[in-house]
Specification:
Rossmann fold; binds NADP nicotinamide-adenine-dinucleotide phosphate; 2 domains; alpha/beta; 7 strands
Length: 256
């Protein structure tokens, strides 16, 4: 009897690695879930469109879902989120419950109050850019951490900009709100990479190029399709060694 029980236990133990492999295969097979902030227009809408076309489960957030006509027309899940509001981020987390999120795209951003000279700048409005561009991604990541930990891919993509690069700030300065709030986003992303990298997360900062959106303006050289198409390929190929990188939409490393 004892020998029988031991052989039964041994047979069971040999199946454990196979069960783990089966689990991994099942996870890789299931549609992945991506959550995109500021998905009602511009680059966020293009992210939602392209991930949806590729068969992802897309959760697109908007400050005003009722007005997010193009996003709703995609047939994706639309959720309310103001990234400047901690209550809004927590309410989103509670509506999501146990939904696992594989990829978080911290895309929502504003140019903020920007003037070429310090003399014209309303310094009391500078914090708005920080609340949205720097603290927003941290606020959303914190609120959704449980969902991200349940995800398979564990990728956090912070949409940064070449204007966040301190070494690239050589064309006469100015634009205090945008440049400094996005540089702070890079630092926050690097810290997240350091902390969450221990749990196999990959956190990156990506400059999407200069793109024709409301923010980029009509004279920008890239279409949203060109920028986001390239970024999706980058996200697909992200590896552990990319954790904490600042790169452009082509995958070229950017100088901090
Ligand atoms: N376009 C470019 O050339 C370029 C270049 C470098 C980096 N980027 C970055 O790319 C990202 C997307 O830019 P874009 O060109 O698509 O800009 P956009 O056309 O101005 O769209 C910005 C998006 O962010 C949302 N947003 C703003 N404040 C928000 C808040 N407090 N909470 C939630 N959502 C908020 C907007 O929602 P509402 O409609 O409610 O305002 C909108 O969906 C930004 O982070 C931007 O800094 C853009």
């Amino acid at each position: 009897m004892r020998r029988y029980l031991i052989s039964l236990l041994a047979a069971f133990l040999t199946t454990i690695p196979q069960l783990a492999l089966l689990d991994a295969a099942r996870a890789a097979d299931e549609p992945k879930t991506v959550l995109i902030t500021g998905a009602n227009r511009g680059l966020g809408l293009e992210f939602a469109r392209e991930f949806h076309t590729r068969g992802y489960r897309v959760i697109g957030t908007a400050r005003d879902p009722a007005a997010a006509e193009e996003l709703k027309a995609l047939g994706v899940r639309v959720e309310q989120l103001d990234v400047a509001d901690t209550g809004s981020a927590k309410a989103l987390a509670s509506r999501l419950g146990d939904v696992a999120i594989d990829i978080l795209i911290n895309n929502a951003g504003i140019f903020g109050v920007n003037t070429p000279t310090i003399a014209e700048l309303d310094v009391d409005k500078l914090h708005e850019a920080f609340t949205v561009n720097s603290i927003g991604p941290l606020r959303v990541t914190q609120a959704l951490l449980k969902n991200l930990r349940q995800g398979h891919d564990k990728k956090i993509v912070n949409i940064s900009t070449s204007m966040a690069s301190i070494s690239d700030n050589t064309d006469g300065g100015g634009n205090y709100a945008y440049r400094s709030s996005k540089a702070a986003l890079n630092m926050i992303g690097k810290s997240l990479a350091g902390e969450l990298g221990r749990e196999d997360f990959i956190v990156v900062m990506i400059h999407p190029g200069w793109v024709r959106t409301d923010m980029g303006g009509p004279g920008a050289p890239l279409s949203p399709e060109e920028s986001i198409g390239a970024i999706l390929k980058l996200i697909d190929g992200l590896k552990a060694e990319d954790n904490g990188r600042f790169m452009d939409y082509k995958g070229q490393t950017m100088a901090w």
